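Marked as duplicate of an earlier ticket. Keeping the data here for the record.
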Amino acid sequence: MARRVRRALKRVPVWAWRVLMHAVKKSEHARFNVDPVTGVDYHHDIDFVGDGIHAHRLDVISPPFSPAAGLHPVYVYFHGGGWTSGDKAALTKYCASQAAGGIVVVNVNYRKAPRFHMRHVLEDANAALEWVARNIRRYGGDPQRLVLGGDSAGGQISALLTASGLHAELAEHYALRPAVAQRTIKGLVQHCSIVDFSVFFDRGFVLSLNFVRMLLPGGRRGRHGRAAALREASRFISPIEWLDARFPPVFLTTSERDYFYGANLNFIDRLRRHQVPTRTLIYGWENANTEHTWQQDYRFPESQEVYRQLQDFVHDVAG
């Protein structure tokens, strides 16, 4: 049955995705955050830009502050939602679970498509890193030991932001001045991430090409209407195109039930060809709890295994 549903979901348009995400938003927040994690400190809705809008708010969730404990590694997380939806609130328990393991976690919102495109999203992600660099010590975090991460579209944001610090061409394309030195980014976490945009052009892929168009300047009305031009333009939003040996170590989780399973396998292959230290947690189709972004749901044993390995990864790469 699940496989038949997958086949029926070919080429979902942007508007249908937005309607679906809006419908599940409230129940998603409640389901993912049941039985809140205690023993950590919550600092909600910090305005990291100073303009008062919800898209420019972040949460810091941290181990209880103690000067004697020293500074903890910092995990900066970007939620998913197909760039058009989602909110940091759904990831509160996920982030708190990492904080309970001795990590300061920064849970970030950002402006969304289709009103905004990739330049605005990266501006927001970069501004969040600038805030972290200036302020995270007061929450017990070490700004010299950062790990970036995200799920789905959030994974793409964190990976592309990492790449922009390594490639001047990419940073210049977005008029971006990286907010932190690349040496401070010790690792990258990817959960079911949209890291290879070539899959959007595969016959029968689940999401329509309008997801690609909406991230580019001009959107559907721009100069990228034809598939060949769109494929070329997508290079600037596809992290795999900028992957090289300078990337920090990566921890990637996916499953055969993930819409972006193929994209994730391509990314792993490219990482290993460039000899980037890579850890993976990949589940087969028989693991029914591993639908796209299952990592958010603490109830699943598969999710708890992600959390255990994630904490090991952060502490190993960031100290």
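See parent ticket for discussion. The first strand starts at residue 41 and ends at 47.
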